[in-house]
Amino acid sequence: QISDLKRQLNITGVLSVVFLLAILGGNVFLLMSSYSNIKDSEKSENYLTLSDIHNCLFSLLDGTRKLQLESDADLYIDVSQEISNIELHVGMLQETYSFLKQIKNEKCNLHSYLVADQIQVYEYLSSAPRYVNVLDFVQSILVNCEELISKRQQNLPTKQNEVFIQKNLLSGGPDYLKKILHLFEDCEMAQVEQLSLNILPWIVVEISAIGLCLLVLVFYITRVDTMFKKLWKSLMKHTRFNIHNHTQKLLQRLSMIHENQEVKPEFEPKFKTKKKVRFTEKCKFLKVVILVCGLCLVYTSSFVFLIETLSVNQLVYEKSILKKNTRLRYLSKELSFWTRESILSNTDSSIEVFLQDNLFFSYPQLEFNSVRESITSNLNDILFSMLHENVSDGIKDIFFSKRNSWKVFSHGLYKGIQMIATESQNLVSSNKLEMEVLYEFDKSVYYLDELLNQVFQSLQREISEKLDFYFNIFIWTTVLYSLVVFGVLLVLFLPLIKKEKLLMKHILKLLKLFERNKT
């Protein structure tokens, strides 16, 4: 019995350490899995690439249109500057095009959208479209832009390329890209919001494992208690037997001394303890085990989920701000384009006159109003988010602080975009072709592109820094929690087992002593 009891105590001690290590390992797995999923969702390369394509396409449309308008004496067109801009955006478009070609089986079915023949392409002097996918559409625009630049350098006619570019960039191609952007954005946001729910099954598994470990340890503690009671009964039995033998020997001696006197022993070998003897540390063992498992349970169910939720909420917010600013970038280009075209709509330089049969857009004034309303709505959404969410001072500084920059943005990005929207409305309402004002307005829009790129970089850096901050909190809390739990195990639980082993040794000595006396 002693050896069995020692073995059960050893098993209990080993299992307590193994179970604790397994639980801590499970928490580390939850940590790494959660962090990996969040960092994967943090990446916005695909979305930004699609946005860059749309932005580049509209910049190419704007540049091509300006080159085509260079003969208009009322417009100031810097041809060399526009050709440089077209070359710049052609290079950017080639980079993004190469990136898109490498996308295979990405999340949100992005690849299937890219290879679906959903875009209408109109050839020069043809009203019958053919359907191509995004990659082929971008490739056809690149080819025509390169031909246009080459013909310009050789002083050759470029009308065919100009018509092709403007027709197709005013038709369904950019709209289809917008549709992909919105679908991809909704899909990404849904996946990010789902992250905190995806970890719930793992938390349930971890909690179930903690409960199972608790049950196993309680089983072994109860088993040790049962074996200890049996051992104690055996010890009491030997004690009673030993006392009975000594009593009989004493009576025999008395009989020999008093030979003529009958001595009748009145001793009955009955010996009972006043109270039941149980496993001396059973309650303490159970309290320590429940304490350790309770700490593991609280940490797993609350802190892990809390960090996951904080990280996901921050990621959702930062991504929403990033994507609203992404929209502002291409919407501002559209605003600049339709502001000019609205002013030119009643002149011989109208784009409708140039394209002759307008099958590609509504009236310039209606297009302008639609884009302006989108910018105003998007700007209001950003302002609401800035006022109601936890935004870093760096991002607020870019949006609201005064700075020495381009005139319209000297009071910050938010005020500058408001002024651009107001100025565009004034230009269209006046219906006057003021060359210098229109030129300055156009420069402001392209300078906005640079500022928004700074916002993208700041937002992405902030997202990464905050997620790393939460991850570091998680690491150090896990380390501290592990030290506390191991401290409880080493200071309270294992010494109890050592104490019980020492008690077993004393009982063993007593039993051996009884055996010798018996012989």
Protein model, in words:
By secondary structure, the protein is an all-alpha fold. It has a domain at 2-25 and 202-301 and 483-518. It has helices at 2-42, 45-68, 79-101, 110-115, 134-153, 159-169, 172-198, 200-257, 282-344, 351-355, 364-388, 393-400, 413-430, 435-518; strands at 119-121, 130-132. A hairpin with an 8-residue loop joins strand 1 (119-121) and strand 2. Helix 1 packs antiparallel against helix 8. It starts with a helix and ends with a helix. 29% of the residues are buried.
Main attributes of the structure:
519 residues, mainly alpha
Task: State the gist of this model.
This protein is mainly α. It is 80% helix and 1% strand. A two-stranded antiparallel ribbon has the order 1-2.
What's the SSE blueprint?
Blueprint: H1 2-42, H2 45-68, H3 79-101, H4 110-115, E1 119-121, E2 130-132, H5 134-153, H6 159-169, H7 172-198, H8 200-257, H9 282-344, H10 351-355, H11 364-388, H12 393-400, H13 413-430, H14 435-518
Antiparallel strand pairs: 1-2
Helix pairs in contact: 1-7, 1-8, 1-9, 1-14, 2-3, 2-6, 2-7, 2-9, 3-5, 5-6, 7-9, 8-9, 8-14, 9-11, 9-13, 9-14, 11-13, 13-14
